[in-house]
Amino acid sequence: MLQLDLSKLSSFLPDDYLVSRTQGLELAHTMLQESNGPGGEFTGWVKLPANYDKVEFERIKGAAKKIRTDSQVLVVIGIGGSYLGARAVIELLNSNNYNLKKKDTPDILFVGNSLSTDAMLETIALIGNRDFSINVISKSGTTTEPAVAFRIFKSLIEARYGKQAAAKRIYATTDKARGALKTLADTEGYETFVVPDDIGGRYSVLTAVGLLPIATAGIDIDALMSGAQSAMDALAVPGLKNVGWQYAAARHALYEDGKRIEILAGYEPSFRFFAEWWKQLYGESEGKQGKGLFPASVEFTADLHSMGQYIQDGHRNLFETVIRFEQPSGKLLIPIDPDNVDGLNFLAGKDLSFVAEQALRGTILAHVDGGVPNILITLPAIRADVVGWLIYFYEYVCGLSGYLLQVNPFDQPGVEAYKKNMFALLGKPGYEDRKAELESRL
Ligand code: PA5
User: Between 144-161 and 180-188, two packed helices, what is the crossing angle to 10 degrees?
Assistant: First the structure.
C-alpha cells in the first residue's frame, strides 16, 4: 500500500544508519506492542483497528445517518486531537471545498478550536436558518475553548428547537465516566460516544472522536478502519523490512545528524489539514525535554513560490518528506492552441498529472542538490482505505520515533503552561496568586 523511497538519503547518511538502530527499534517496537514503555497506558491505539468497539461503531453509523437526515449542518466542537483528525480525513477524502460542494450530506463546521469572536460569529451566520446538530468532543471534558463554544452553541440550538428536541441533536464524545461534559451529557440526555481511556487525543482519530464527523460527511468508515487494520498487521511484523522502522530510523538519523525540522510536503490542496493533524501528532509527541524535530508543512506547488526559496537555499537544518498519491480521480488533458503564444504546445495532449509528476521529481532533485534530504512516500490514490493506512503508519512511526528519542510520546506536559496563565488572567478561582504575579509582569 505504502512505498517508502529512502534512496535520496544516501548522500546524507552513513550506509549503516538503519542497521545501527536495530536494537533501539526492537525495543521501541516491543514497548508499543506490549504497552510497557513510558506512557504505555496510552497505547490503546496500537491494536484499535482490530479491537474497536463494534457496537459503538454501529451506533456511530446510526447517529451519522440521523444527522444526515435531520440536519443540513453538523457543528463539530473540539480542539487539538478532538478536532484535527476529523477535519484532516474529511478534507482529504471529500475535498478542502467540501462545504462548498453540492452534496446530500451536511456541511461540517468546526468551532471551539480558537477563541476568535469573528470565527464564532461567522459560523453562526453560516448556519443561518438551516437545521443543525452538534457534536461536542472533549476527552477531558474541561478544555476551555470547546467548553466556551459549547455554551454558546448549546444556547443557540436550545433557542431554536427547545431544550428537549435540542438534546436529540447534541452528540457528546468524551470520557466514559469522568469530566464535566460527561456529567452534562448524562444530565441533559445527549447520546454519548467514548474516547477510550488508553487513547490520547492526538491518537484518537479512529475512535468516535473522528469517526462520527467523518461518517456524517458520507465517508466509508469501514474502509477507513480496514485500511488501518492492514497497516496494523503490516507494521506489527518486526524487522528492518518494516517500513515504519525504516522511516523512524531515517528521521532519527537525520535528527542526530543535526536536522531540526521535518517538512511534510503535499501536492494536493486537500492534504493541507492532514499535515495539520500530523504536525500536532509529532509536535506534541516528540517536542519535549529540549528535544525533537519541529514538524512543518508545505503545500506544493503553491509553496514552491514562497517557501521554496528557503528550502532550496536557507539554513540547512531541515529535511523533507514528500507525499505522493499516484492516481488522480480523473484525467485533465492540456489543450492544443494553434497560436501557441504561451509556448506551451509541447505539453498539448499531456495529462495535468504528468506535469505535476515532473514538478515533484524535479523538486526532489533540486532540494537534494540544495542539501535537503528527501524522503518520498507514495500511495496509490486518495481513498478511505489508503487514508486509514496512512493514519496508522504515521501514528506507529510517531510512537517508534518518540521512544528512539527517549521521550514519552504520549504525554503533553508543555501544553499546561499557557492554560494556567490563561485561567489566572481570567480570574478562575484558585489562581489568585498567579494572577497577581502575571499582572505585575504585563
Ligand atoms: O492530544 C492531546 O491530548 C490534546 O491535543 C487534546 O486533544 C486537546 O488538548 C483537547 O483535549 P480534550 O479532548 O480533553 O478537550
Answer: 10
